[in-house]
Amino acid sequence: MTVLTTPSRLTPDQISGAVAAAQSYADYAADMPLNRDALNANYDAVALTSEDLAAIGTIRQPLRLFAIVEEWCPDVIANLPIFARISEANPAVSLHVLYRPDHRPIADAYPGPVTNRSHIPTYVLFDAQDRELGVLIERPAAITEIVKPFAEGVQAEIASRFPGVDRADLPPEFLASITARALELRDEHRDLERAGVVEWLVASASAET
């Protein structure tokens, strides 16, 4: 989890263009070609607590939240619905869903600290003056610690079974099985993920620039 208090890495034209081109969560979910049922199930399962709602309610200034996503990613399926529920609970947080292949320059402006390439999902929070208040890459830190052994196991399995094969060329049934296993793990820690998302958002929204 990375929290920033810096001027935006995007130009005003990039930001306004992204807002104009972005999808709402509902439109993205309706158009999603893969894993739509899993996304909808996670959306239905999000239960913001009274503590969550009180914390979210402290956000009063208008904010823009960019969600840079792709439909195959278990992280997107796990935590994008949480942000959607937060935006519904407090409309001051305006959620804009950006499909990464259509918004590569924006995605590439937020490389991961280790890989130096874009990751999905990437969430970027802006204030009304288009200053970056925070960036969340993939998932809350507590969830990263939990999924790390699973991810390492998947990478080892791919290296063993499909040496030298790009992810895009892996068998669809194998990719589907990985997603299903990843989501089972995330379901076990649904409350921790929700709490981590709320904590990041509230902390970022109150960051001083």
Topology diagram in text:
Layout: H1 12-21, H2 25-31, H3 36-45, H4 50-57, E1 63-69, H5 74-89, E2 93-99, H6 104-108, E3 122-126, E4 132-137, H7 141-161, H8 172-187, H9 190-205
Parallel strand pairs: 1-2
Antiparallel strand pairs: 1-3, 3-4
Helix pairs in contact: 3-5, 5-9, 7-8
Keyword list:
single chain, 209 residues, alpha+beta, Glutaredoxin, four-stranded mixed β-sheet, globular, disordered N terminus, Thioredoxin family protein
Descriptive notes:
The protein has a single domain, classed as 3-Layer(aba) Sandwich (Glutaredoxin). The protein contains 9 helices and 4 strands. It has helices at 12-21, 25-31, 36-45, 50-57, 74-89, 104-108, 141-161, 172-187, 190-205, and strands at 63-69, 93-99, 122-126, 132-137. The protein has a 4-stranded mixed beta sheet, sandwiched between helices. The radius of gyration is 17 Å and the shape is globular. The model is unreliable at 1-5 (pLDDT under 50). This is Thioredoxin family protein.
